[in-house]
Write a structure and sequence with these properties.
Blueprint lengths: L1 H31 L6 H21 L5 H28 L8 H22 L4 E2 L7 E7 L2 E6 H23 L1 H11 L1 H6 L4 H27 L1 E2 L3 H16 L4 H21 L5 H15 L14
Antiparallel strand pairs: 1-4, 2-3
Helix pairs in contact: 1-5, 1-8, 1-9, 1-10, 2-3, 2-4, 2-8, 2-9, 3-8, 5-6, 5-8, 6-8, 9-10, 9-11, 10-11
Length: 304
């Protein structure tokens, strides 16, 4: 039971990171109806920007960790949001009214562009950093096994909860949120009623990219490394989480992320770690057989 509790904590932390990335997938799909396959690489860009910002601040002699983390968070969110806006303008907007496969192919191409751009700019080697947030709390100890909750795990989970609450308020209570929900239902009618559809879609990409930047920073803090290829793997897992929870549903994206994180962690703990991805995708297949729209997804109703 002690070992199970420790793995449960680890799974929830990993699932929180997946959930933050999955929200970006489900937002874009909810409004545009397309999957942004470059979103995983936006997450990777956010991790690199967080690393570079951290190294620059330390080189200037700033040593107070909370201030460093706040500045790094804001800088990485701002710059990564600009990348998200650029992806929308280059890969999506010119092809929005083309056949449905065109934006998807364009997004896949943008994914390769971002991946190779990062490889050329930062090199192919893994970029490690020393532990930034240290310490933690011992929750339970018995028979030589310690159940421990580290400070960095607390930061990851609390940050995820706070951002999810803020974003839920943004979608439910603000003008931008109403515009996003209107575009999700009917872009043509929303435009006739005065909604700036282009601006709303751009802001959706910007917000999704900012959340991916937070996930990239949390990944850096938790694992202590970044590399140019991490966006592909994490992006596929987050996309799986969005589909599992119900593509288009924000709570579903977070629920799917938590489930994928728990499945991976528990399988790695009790079975062969080499097959953890097989376990996650197998669970996805089983769920979609019985629930084609995912756990919290809504079936599409065709209006006639």
């Amino acid at each position: 039971m002690d070992y199970f509790a420790q793995q449960l904590i680890n799974g929830l932390v990993l699932g929180s990171i997946y959930g933050l990335i999955a929200i970006g997938y489900t937002m874009v799909y909810g409004i545009v109806g397309m999957i942004n396959f470059a979103h995983g690489d936006i997450f990777m860009i956010g991790g690199f920007i967080a690393l570079i910002s951290f190294l620059i601040l330390v080189s200037f002699g700033l040593t107070f960790v909370p201030v460093i983390l706040l500045i790094v968070l804001l800088v990485s969110m701002a710059i990564t949001a600009l990348y998200g806006w650029t992806v929308e303008r280059i890969a999506y907007r010119p092809l929005r009214h083309s056949f449905r496969l065109a934006p998807m192919l364009s997004a896949i191409g943008m994914s390769f562009v971002l991946m190779n751009y990062s490889q050329i700019a930062q090199g192919a080697r893994v970029k490690p950093v020393p532990p930034i947030i240290t310490g933690g709390y011992t929750l339970y100890e018995a028979d030589g096994f310690v159940v421990r909750l580290s400070n960095v795990q607390i930061v990851v989970v609390v940050t995820t909860i706070v951002l999810l609450a803020i974003f839920t308020w943004l979608v439910a209570k603000t003008r931008l949120g109403r515009d996003m929900r209107a575009c999700e239902q009917d872009q043509t009618m929303a435009a006739l009623l005065g909604v700036d559809v282009d601006r709303t879609i751009s802001m959706t990409f910007v917000i999704g990219a900012a959340l991916a930047a937070v996930a990239g920073m949390m990944y850096l803090l938790y694992y202590g490394l970044v590399d140019f290829f991490m966006g592909f793997v994490a992006g596929i897992k987050a996309f799986t989480a969005a589909v599992l929870g119900g593509i288009g549903s924000l709570p579903g994206a977070m629920l799917g992320g938590l489930l994928i994180g728990l499945i991976e962690t528990m399988w790695s703990a009790y079975f062969s770690v080499e097959y953890k991805d097989v376990a996650a995708f197998s669970i996805l297949i089983i769920v979609l057989i019985f629930l084609p729209t995912g756990l919290l997804g809504r079936p599409e109703v065709e209006k006639v």
